[in-house]
Amino acid sequence: MCTTDSPAFELRLLISYPMEVVVAESPVATSPISPHVPRLVTDMGSLYIYFDEWDVEADVSAFDGLFIHFIPSDPPASVAELFMSPPSRYVAGLFWDPNSRELDGKREELLAASRRHVDELFAEPVLSGYFAALAELLTSRARSLIEILRLDYGQYLLPDTQSVRWSSGHWILPEGSAIALEQRKQLHESGMRAGIVSGYHLVPEERIAEVAPAFLERLGVQRRPQQPSGGGSPALRGSDWPNIVARLGERSKTTELSRVLMATAHGQCYSGLGEPRLALVAAVAALEMEVKALMERSLRQYGIGKSAVDHIVRETPLSDLASVWIRREVSPSLVADCGDDVFHKAARAIRDRNELVHLQRRRITWEHVIDHVRVLDQLTTLARESRVGSDK
């Protein structure tokens, strides 16, 4: 039986972006054995989430990517054998040497050969079933992680996307692996890469093999090139990670569109990166959705259906609807916490949005948009929490 102390293999994948998109307070995890490293235990094995130690600063660090590190538990014997002494027909489908001299002028030819080897590997039912399940595990948890960080922890520069792109991947081979022994012979002064920390020791570079691009393609992911970086976000705290990991283990639920729109609005509020007009349009749309949902829930008991509510929304200014229905449905103490003039501020935000959309106004300052989005987010959250609380 394979355990995390002596795994048959490990797989480390990197999700990277063209700029810093995640900000976290120190200390942060930089390997699977870092103290308090976020870890999710699944039926297939354990997933670890950590960051590149080169980007760590003393107090608050900004990262342009993160690692998802998989350590299996009890994989099928035929899977484990792939990393100990793989049949020659599978080697080029699993492993890739970016420093190989054979790549000179033959890259496309070698990629085509690698794809043929992957096809042979995936023709084996046990291997195909295992790696298909692993692909689903990795991509679904990565999507959930990005969504949780973006919507619940203020990491608004993470993109709103249903796809996951990996910039690179590395296999960590077991001791005594035939591939590792072969790589030891081939290593020269430039080397493939430095060793990395895994388990309870520093893994020597001969036990680290790059995942073949063709294999990543079959896992349903694509390589993504590195690009220049920059940017920032509110900082994740160490105390946030246990809840994040707990959320990753929950069954996936459809995320409300109003939350996605509001996160998009915040993401568009970064001067030099976002578009202020889009930020305001998205935030107002989110508020309208939640006010409308409040109305539908309340009026349903009187036999007033969705089409009638749609008509009311079309004919009544959103600022008036928000003022009436949030005051009507939300606890007065919660509304008061937002400030005495929150509805006046929201009305100004909606008016500015209407001028941008309907009167072809071209400009609005970043300062105004940031204030507008903050106020609209307060009211949208009040409406949503009141609705969700009543639906339970």
Structure description:
Mean pLDDT is 82; it is low at 188-194 and 222-232. It is built from 14 helices and twelve strands. It has two domains: 10-248, no CATH class; 257-391, Four Helix Bundle (Hemerythrin (Met), subunit A) (Up-down Bundle). A hairpin with a 2-residue loop joins strand 9 (196-198) and strand 10 (201-203). The strands form three sheets. The chain has a seven-stranded antiparallel β-sheet. A three-stranded mixed β-sheet has the order 5-2-12, with no helix packed on it. The two termini are 44 Å apart. The protein has helices spanning 77-84, 88-94, 107-122, 125-152, 178-186, 213-218, 241-248, 257-267, 276-299, 306-315, 318-329, 332-337, 342-358, 366-391, and strands spanning 10-16, 22-25, 39-41, 45-50, 60-63, 65-72, 95-96, 168-172, 196-198, 201-203, 208-211, 235-236. The protein has 392 residues and is an alpha+beta fold. Helix 4 crosses helix 7 (241-248), helix 9 packs across helix 10 and helix 11 (318-329) packs antiparallel against helix 13.
Task: Spell out the key features of this protein.
single chain, 392 residues, alpha+beta, Four Helix Bundle (Hemerythrin (Met), subunit A), 2 domains, 7-stranded antiparallel beta sheet, 3-stranded mixed beta sheet, elongated
